[in-house]
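Give me the fold.
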Amino acid sequence: MSRPCAGCKPIAVRSLTGPAEHDASARPGQHPDDAGPSVRRTTMLQGLSQKFRGGCMMLVREQEQDLSFLGTAFLVHPQGYLLTAAHLAHRSEGLHVVPTHPNDEFTPMTIDRAAALAVAVVASDTAHDSALLRIEQPLDIAVPDDFLGSADQVRTGASILSLGYAFGHEQLHEVIAVGGHVAAKIRSPNDTRLILFDNMVQDGDIGGPLIHAGDGHIVGLVSGRFDPTEVVRGATDWDRRPPHDTNISFAVAIDYGLELMARAGLLAGTGGAG
């Protein structure tokens, strides 16, 4: 991905809200709510994808006139604040976000030139892998009401949706939406609340939102593929074992990001659980 040209106009930051989508899986004349459970779940996931894809941005770092892809960040406040994984933003210099224009058309997989927006790290919680960023350019962005939830709201077996630039490292600059289910809720040795889910995330998904399909709230921040040997590292009884080949991924509770927002005085009007 090359650096934006000097005369480029910044890509307009898309609103988090999107148009309602007709559910083609329901029979003609049938309301989706009157269809079976699988149709209703599909309808919910379609709506959530439309609602949140526009708030996801590529997190990149400027290096020698080029932009190097790091992962995903997502908007949480109308004044240009975003959340992402803290380990992606451990070096604050040169950080930018690149908004794209996700839609349901067939689009080119790669952006050759991008208008990047510089971001600053406002706060970081490395113990819980959460970081709050701010777009340095003054912005006023429309965000939906009541879209930030709590990991306490989601139960094992619940339907979820993860969003992220899964293959950004391979030059696919498109938000990937993948559905799944909550597999478990656990606490790590340092007492971090983790949501395990049956969705094999890729490195580019890290930093993206995990959304509870039941109420449409963001409940987690995607951290990566789940490997028990990595999560328990540092425990007194930890013993090195071969890594697991697993399709289970994990997200840290969104509550840690909300705590960063609260310290910055941002929660009023965002719908966050405070």
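The helical segments are 37-52, 228-231, 255-263.
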